Amino acid sequence: METVTLIPGDGIGPEVSRAVQKVIDAVGVDIEWKEVNAGAGVMDKYGTPLPDKVLDSVRKNKVALKGPITTPVGSGFRSVNVAIRKKLDLYINLRPVKTYKGAPTKFKDVNYVVFRENTEGLYAGIEHEVGEDAAESIKIITRKASKRIVKAAFEYAKRENRKLVTAVHKANIMKLSDGLFLETAKEVAKEYPEIEFNDRIVDNMCMQLVQYPDEYDVLVMPNLYGDVISDLGAGLIGGLGLTPGANIGDEIAVFEAVHGSAPDIAGKDKANPIALLLSGVLMLRHLEEFEAADRVENAIAEILAEGKVLTKDLGGEAATTEITEEIINRL
Ligand code: NAI
After folding, report:
1. Please, is 135 exposed, middle or buried when counting C-beta atoms within 10 Å of its C-beta (0-12, 13-18, 19+)?
2. What is the number of other CB atoms lying within 10 angstroms of the CB of residue 106?
3. Angular region, 23: left φ>0, alpha ψ -120 to 50, beta rest
4. Which of 261, 269, 274 best tests ligand 1's pocket when mutated (most atoms within 8 Å of CB)?
5. What is the pLDDT of residues 144-159, one digit of tens each?
6. pLDDT at residue 75 greater than cutoff 80
7. Which ligand 1 atom sits closest to the C-alpha of 262?
8. Dihedral sign, Cα of residue 165, residue 168, residue 172, residue 177
9. For residues 226-243, average pLDDT
10. Measuring from atom 12 of ligand 1, which residue has the nearest CA?
């Protein structure tokens, strides 16, 4: 039996988290879920959106499944999602972008993986006002953080038999910060002569991914670019309802979808649970439950290919609970 921390989150988080619990239960993997929560809903009780008991639970169990958590825009508390990644030093944000047959997209054979640096860059959260009419955000790039994310991308490529790693940057403009990232990536690439390496400037990368997505394999980049490129990837493969993710450190891994709390459809039994389910598939593989992971992924692929029971974002009419039952029936 594995013990896993469950952070259901808010908005559609609780609905899609329950779906994942049900499917994992149905596939026969014995997980004891330790439920804790974070975000606006716990502010009154704990005086913080990220109580210590959440971080303590994840530190103890080493693995967590997390639903999305709303971040107030402009003012209010800083992103709990970013804080969890930083406090637990989950420096890898892994986001696979893969087309399934039947998904609502004209793109085929897309299968690349984004390695987004998760602890620094423009998400370091160092901002201040300069007088009344200006504000500054400081972007931090270090050799240490760049090296470990690029190494993680190459190690993944080696393990998963991928052929190409592409570093994404804007070193032509941010010569020092992105320059350091690129220089570090080139140094690390020399340690992996069997894997091809190239680099792309981020704006060109966006265009390339729309024109020739099947030419890319493993992409590695600083924080903000990774955030943008993974949503672009979601658009390529049929939407945020299909895009999983994981935040991984040396010892701890937190699995969460790319999408947010989708307040527009929250509580209506309309959310697509597949993105968090595929994050659950990544979690099962992390727990070395390979057969169960394959069964869940195959069941999802089957219902997408058939196209009969789909949520609204995929062009169907089915509720979250209905698509979840259909996936369970396929197991
Ligand atoms: P969002 O991803 O929540 O929603 C964007 C659009 O995609 C909406 O139309 C929504 O209905 C749709 N959508 C997203 N997930 C879906 C799903 N599973 N099934 C069907 N439709 C889905 O992005 P938005 O609106 O920018 O952010 C809402 C809140 O979520 C914000 O407070 C934001 O800060 C937070 N957020 C949290 C994240 C996390 O917890 N890791 C990640 C991204 C955003």
Report:
1. exposed
2. 7
3. alpha
4. 261
5. 999 999 999 999 999 9
6. no
7. 3
8. negative
9. 95
10. 262
Nearest to residue 96, comparing CAs of 226, 266, 225?
Answer: 226
Domain spans of the chain, in order of start: 1-105+238-331, 122-219
Tokens of 297: 């992924």
Residues in the chain: 331
- Give the residues across from 135 on adjacent strands: 129
Place of tokens 């299909």: 242
- Say whether domain 1-105+238-331 belongs to CATH 3.40.718.10: yes
Tell me the best of 240, 270, 300, 320 to mutate to test the pocket of ligand 1, counting ligand atoms within 8 Å of each CB and taking the most: 240
Q: Which sign does the torsion angle of CA 236, 238, 239, 245 carry? A: negative
Are the CB atoms for 143 and 177 separated by under 8 Å?
no
Q: Which ligand 1 atom is the nearest neighbour of the CA of 264?
A: 11
pLDDT of 147 reads: 98
Distances (CA, A) of 38 to 8, 46, 48, 49, 242: 9, 10, 8, 5, 24
Nearest to 64, CA basis, from 262, 276, 224:
276
Going from the C-alpha of 278 to that of each of 132, 256, 281, 283, the distances in angstroms are: 45, 9, 5, 9
* Residue bearing tokens 């998904």: 103
Query: What phi, psi does 20 have (nearest 5°)?
Result: -65, -40
Give pLDDT, residue 73. Answer: 84
Sign (positive or negative) of CA dihedral 81, 199, 204, 180: positive
Residues above pLDDT 90, as percent of the chain: 94
Whole-number Å distance, alpha carbon 189 to ligand 1 midpoint, is 35
